[in-house]
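Hi V.,

Quick status before I head out on leave. The structure for the redesign project is tokenized and pasted below; the design run finished overnight.
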């Protein structure tokens, strides 16, 4: 049986120094730092009391030579010899506190971990302003580990403590002074605490490493392929990883008067970026190939690691990533999504559809030189089709791989556009809109929403549909604008056959909440509608409207004429057909633009 790992023991100080010299790569996996400061406090408390704190799992870096020349950032190793697979949060905590270094939190912000210590009580606590003003506390134990003169530091604390106690008429004894010396010294001795380490050999495949992690790790966290890719970037091109994380951070919230990745339709994660990079730059749809590619695997020679291939592929990555993160590319693409009627993130149930469409946008722009208008229109249509068809769900990576392999063989703009248009026309026949879409795999479902429902909403946006029941010219799309809601959402889903009314007739919740029973209306209208039969409230709402205006409103909102007098099952059946026709109308509008 092949040996997979060795076991060794290092003390805390040795591991921290390995990080300082660059011999041990930190951060690597499971970044950013997600521990709460209370967990860091408990970690140091366990170390102080001699309790075990678990183990580390390290992975020897492949095909790296020991390099003891002075590397970047003053480190002794140009590249890490090992990376952390398990124990990232604990080791990050130890390094951050002992070295007084900031960490990157889950919002991609640099923050300082401050753990306070009270030598009198022999107690750790998370820093607070009150603690920092209390002379009995050392507000930040990083000061203990980083001081150049421990004797002077301890004396300074004792003098401060003595002065404080005497001001409160409390006695300060030599016994207390000795106890303080011992306890502060015990903090520095934390660096001598042992830490067991599993060292996985460099030739172990990443899938085996992931399985080892899952079997050993009690937390149940699963390592993903993008974790390994980001690890390699940390080793060989840390600036690239920083660019990805900065882009993702900036996609979360706007910055005043500054152009960033922020947008209305999605929050970006590193995995999203990795998928786009692999598809656009490497014609790969499977994440598992990403790690092997960047590691330098020679696929024609049984995966043997080739340093030349690794260098070539990292060069490709360095050319590709800036195009993926280019703000002009990104925001022009986002316009194509909004042009398809998808105006906010709540409408998009498949991020894969969005980001693979972005990869095709980049391929169309940079490989086939489509004009911006051509490219946007094609991407609008493709996204509308891909998300409604649930194309990039389930075993989607093989689907993407096949599409990218086909596109590689295309040599002209016309062929490129034809590839997408043919795929759509083959599936979206008249039967799709008249049978499939109104059926159980489309609109004939209950719940908060599915791809078919949001395609209907997108169609209302795309077709410029006025809000149902309003007597103004306010369009549905206008109520998706940021900042229009105030404290209550302007646009709400309303039961056309009211919930209380249907319950009185004995209908179940699954029947009551059918997608076809919903309509988007202004909430001011919603609160004025009573829980009565449609035949009772509809004439009141339509009072003052002409017959022509009523028919137009019904047509635009997929309401069968006379719907208020229909039986509920008949209404659902007829409305699904009309909703599907509105989606078809939106589809043809997008198609005409291509």
């Amino acid at each position: 049986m092949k040996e997979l790992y060795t076991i060794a023991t290092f003390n805390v100080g040795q591991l921290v120094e390995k990080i300082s010299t660059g011999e041990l790569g930190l951060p690597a996996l499971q970044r950013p730092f997600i521990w709460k400061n209370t967990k860091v406090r408990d970690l140091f408390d366990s170390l102080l009391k001699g309790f075990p704190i678990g183990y580390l799992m390290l992975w020897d870096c492949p095909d790296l030579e020991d390099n003891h020349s002075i590397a970047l950032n003053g480190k002794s190793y140009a590249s890490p010899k090992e990376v952390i697979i398990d124990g990232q949060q604990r080791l990050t905590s130890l390094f951050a506190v002992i070295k007084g270094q900031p960490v990157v939190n889950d919002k991609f912000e640099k923050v300082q971990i401050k753990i306070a210590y009270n030598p009198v009580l022999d107690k750790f606590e998370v820093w607070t302003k009150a603690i920092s003003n209390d002379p009995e506390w050392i507000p930040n134990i990083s000061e203990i580990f980083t001081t150049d003169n421990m004797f002077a530091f301890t004396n300074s604390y004792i003098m401060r403590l003595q002065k404080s106690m005497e001001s409160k008429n409390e006695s300060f004894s030599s016994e207390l002074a000795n106890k303080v010396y011992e306890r502060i010294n015990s903090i520095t001795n934390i660096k001598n605490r042992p830490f067991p380490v599993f060292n996985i050999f460099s030739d172990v495949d990443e899938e085996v490493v992931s399985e080892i992690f899952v079997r050993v790790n009690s937390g149940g966290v699963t390592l993903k392929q993008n974790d390994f890719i980001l690890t390699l970037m940390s080793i060989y091109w840390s600036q690239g990883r920083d660019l990805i994380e900065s882009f993702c951070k900036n996609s979360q919230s706007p910055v005043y008067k500054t152009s960033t990745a922020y947008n209305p339709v999605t929050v970006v994660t590193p995995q999203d970026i990795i998928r786009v990079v692999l598809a656009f730059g490497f014609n790969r749809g499977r994440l598992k190939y990403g790690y092997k590619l960047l590691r330098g695997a020679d696929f024609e020679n049984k995966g043997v690691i080739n340093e030349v291939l690794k260098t070539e592929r990292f060069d490709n990555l360095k050319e590709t990533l800036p195009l993926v993160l280019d703000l002009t590319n990104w925001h022009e693409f986002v316009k194509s999504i909004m042009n398809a009627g998808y105006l906010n993130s709540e409408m998009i149930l498949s991020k894969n559809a969005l980001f693979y469409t972005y990869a095709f946008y980049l391929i169309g722009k940079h490989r086939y030189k489509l004009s911006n208008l051509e490219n946007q229109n094609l991407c609008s249509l493709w996204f509308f089709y891909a998300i409604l068809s649930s194309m990039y769900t389930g075993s989607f990576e093989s689907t993407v791989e096949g599409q990218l392999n086909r596109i590689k063989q295309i040599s002209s703009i016309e062929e490129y556009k034809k590839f997408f248009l043919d795929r759509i026309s083959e599936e979206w026949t008249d039967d799709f809109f008249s049978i499939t879409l109104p059926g159980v795999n489309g609109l004939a479902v209950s719940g908060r929403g599915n791809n078919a429902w949001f395609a209907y909403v997108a169609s209302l946006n795309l077709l410029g549909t006025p809000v149902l029941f309003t007597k103004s010219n306010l369009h549905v799309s206008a109520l998706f604008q940021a900042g229009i809601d105030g404290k209550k959402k302007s646009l709400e889903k309303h039961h056309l056959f009211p919930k209380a009314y249907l319950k009185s007739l004995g209908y179940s919740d699954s029947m009551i909440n059918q997608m076809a029973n919903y309509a988007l209306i202004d909430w001011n209208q919603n609160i004025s509608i009573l829980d009565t039969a449609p035949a009772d409230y509809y004439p009141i709402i339509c009072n003052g409207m002409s017959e022509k205006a009523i028919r137009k409103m019904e047509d635009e909102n997929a309401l069968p004429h006379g719907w208020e007098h229909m039986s509920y099952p008949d209404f659902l059946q007829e409305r699904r057909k009309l909703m599907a026709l509105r989606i078809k109308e939106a589809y043809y509008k997008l198609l005409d633009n291509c």
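Above is the designed sequence. The chain is about 50% helix and 10% strand.

G. will cover questions while I'm gone.

Best,
W.
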